[in-house]
Amino acid sequence: MREWRIAAAVAAVFLAGGALAQQPQLNETQTLGRSLFVQSCGVCHLLPQMGAPRYAPALSRDSAGGQESAMREVIANGTPRMPGFKANFTPEQIAAIAAYLKTVPPTAAAPSPSAAPANSREQD
């Protein structure tokens, strides 16, 4: 029994190390960007808990055509469906969010809010 526990512990450490090795190390700017993103953008752009809908697309290094300057522009000025954050964040903080997004790999395509039936929101 003891050997099994040791083998399980070694396997857990090995698997954790492999998972960590696949994640990029973030520099100080990217870490700040991740924190700001989770705090202010995650409510719409991250998967919610308990099966609630996501209100905005998942973001990654491919967002805004993969161009960091375009990401900064959208974050600062917003879109018709998203508020701009230039009144909330400094240009350096906006750049940090874009720098963080450049580290996020694209995920499997998930249905976007616009893929929902058009009449589903009209009935609310």
What distinguishing features does this structure have?
mainly alpha; 124 residues; disordered C terminus; Cytochrome Bc1 Complex, Chain D, domain 2
Summarize, please.
The protein is mainly α.
- Strand portion, in percent? under 5%
Main beta-sheet strand count, sense and barrel state: none
How many β-strand stretches?
Answer: 0
Q: How is the quaternary structure best described?
A: single chain
CATH fold-type name of the domain at 26-107: Cytochrome Bc1 Complex, Chain D, domain 2
- Our count of helices gives 5
- Taken in chain order, the helices and strands follow as HHHHH
Distance between the terminal alpha carbons, to the nearest Å?
57 Å
Indicate the radius of gyration in whole angstroms: 19 Å
Low-confidence regions: 1-22, 108-124
The assigned CATH architecture of the domain at 26-107 is: Orthogonal Bundle
* Backbone shape: globular
**Mean pLDDT across all amino acids:** 75
CATH class of the domain at 26-107: Mainly Alpha
Query: Considering DSSP H and I runs of 4 or more, what fraction of the residues is helical?
Result: 40-55%
User: CATH superfamily of the domain at 26-107, called what?
Assistant: Cytochrome c-like domain
